[in-house]
């Protein structure tokens, strides 16, 4: 998990322990990184038929410890009162039942901190970063550590290990590049230094740095963009529908107007009577109706004048077979 060797050369001596029973699980409280002289408990949980639990530590052939199950017979605890270099290492557990011996659990690495002076931790460009951006965290020390490890508090899945690089005569450092940070990177980070020949014995933790990731995730930004686009398309669709109905209404009013004019030309008297009745029921249209009446009177006078002129010209052409060619405009 932390880029450290999990070599357990004693495993081959216990290959015969593997069986078909339920594989036990192993964990440590309060965690996997324990300060020097602090207590720690290693738990091993297996089957309800377990009669005894065994703990092995890397480098040991004989069981490092054995414990009977608690009242809840499916687990046992192995207590370390004071954490020292001797207890740092990799552990596995298994149990015995009437059906035989179980297979071994997954390895658990228990690290001691406080064996060396602390390194310093810095971040660039800032501890406050927007989601999707990159940051660089530098762990440096005046001691010649072989490696540096960067860990997020209480989240050992977020850890990085790099070899130490000599920056100057009295400075050794490593640069941890965290690309495309997400909300999972929110939290406190610390770094440690250690030597290759003792990879579970670490320095005192560096100064903590709190990383604050703000902003939306990339997929959330894409989702918001899609929703905004759909909203705009929907708005444009409604606008087009509105304009279409508005154009239809204007066209309908135009056709209605032409029909009214045809009625006026066909039967002026009847149309006038209808309009006058409408005028009495709707006083707001008095002025419009008066103009309409004046127009009708003009049309009537024009028709009578045109008829008189036609009769006069007929008489003239009847008396003179040939006469001057002229056109009269009214």
Automatic annotation (TrEMBL):
List each coiled-coil range. Answer: none
According to the lineage, what is the superkingdom?
Eukaryota
Record-linked Pfam families: ig
Stretches that traverse the bilayer: 222-243
The answer to whether the entry has keyword Glycoprotein is: yes
Cell division found in the keyword field: no
Q: Which InterPro entries match?
A: Ig-like_dom (IPR007110), Ig-like_dom_sf (IPR036179), Ig-like_fold (IPR013783), Ig-like_Receptors_ImmuneReg (IPR050412), Ig_sub (IPR003599), Immunoglobulin_dom (IPR013151)
Q: Which GO terms describe its biological process?
A: cell surface receptor signaling pathway; immune response-regulating signaling pathway
Keywords of this protein's UniProt record, alphabetized?
Answer: Disulfide bond, Glycoprotein, Immunoglobulin domain, Membrane, Signal, Transmembrane, Transmembrane helix
Domain Ig-like positions: 119-191
Assigned GO CC terms: plasma membrane
Q: From the Swiss-Prot or TrEMBL record, give the protein name.
A: Ig-like domain-containing protein
- Organism of provenance: Myodes glareolus
Please spell out the taxonomic lineage of the organism that makes this protein. Eukaryota, Metazoa, Chordata, Craniata, Vertebrata
């Amino acid at each position: 998990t932390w880029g450290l060797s999990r070599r357990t050369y004693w495993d081959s001596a216990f290959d015969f322990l593997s069986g078909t029973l339920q594989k036990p699980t192993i964990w440590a409280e309060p965690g996997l990184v324990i300060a020097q002289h602090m207590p720690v408990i290693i738990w091993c949980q297996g089957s309800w038929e377990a009669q005894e639990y065994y703990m092995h530590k890397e480098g040991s052939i004989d069981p490092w410890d054995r414990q009977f199950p608690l009242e809840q017979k499916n687990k046992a605890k192995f207590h370390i009162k004071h954490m020292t270099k001797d207890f740092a290492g990799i552990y596995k557990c298994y149990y015995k039942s009437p059906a035989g011996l179980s297979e071994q659990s997954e390895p658990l690495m228990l690290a001691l901190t406080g064996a060396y002076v602390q390194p310093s931790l810095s971040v660039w460009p800032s501890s406050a970063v927007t989601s999707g951006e990159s940051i660089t965290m530098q762990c440096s020390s005046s001691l010649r550590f072989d490696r540096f490890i960067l860990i997020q508090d209480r989240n050992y899945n977020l850890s990085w290990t790099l070899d130490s690089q000599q920056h100057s005569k009295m400075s050794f450092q490593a640069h941890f590049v965290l690309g495309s940070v997400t909300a999972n990177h929110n939290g406190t980070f610390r770094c440690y230094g250690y030597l290759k020949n003792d990879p579970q014995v670490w320095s005192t933790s560096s100064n903590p740095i709190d990383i604050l990731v703000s902003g939306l995730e990339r997929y959330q930004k894409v989702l918001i963009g899609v929703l905004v686009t759909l909203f705009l398309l929907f708005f444009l669709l409604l606008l087009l529908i509105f304009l279409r109905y508005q154009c239809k209404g204007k066209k309908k009013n135009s056709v209605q107007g032409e029909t009214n004019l045809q009625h006026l030309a066909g039967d002026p008297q009847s149309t006038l009577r209808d309009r006058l009745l409408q005028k009495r029921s709707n006083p707001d249209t008095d002025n419009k109706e008066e103009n309409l009446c004046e127009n009708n009177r003009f049309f009537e006078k024009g028709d009578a004048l045109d008829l008189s002129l036609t009769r006069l010209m007929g008489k003239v052409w009847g008396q003179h077979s040939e006469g001057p060619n002229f056109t009269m405009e009214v």
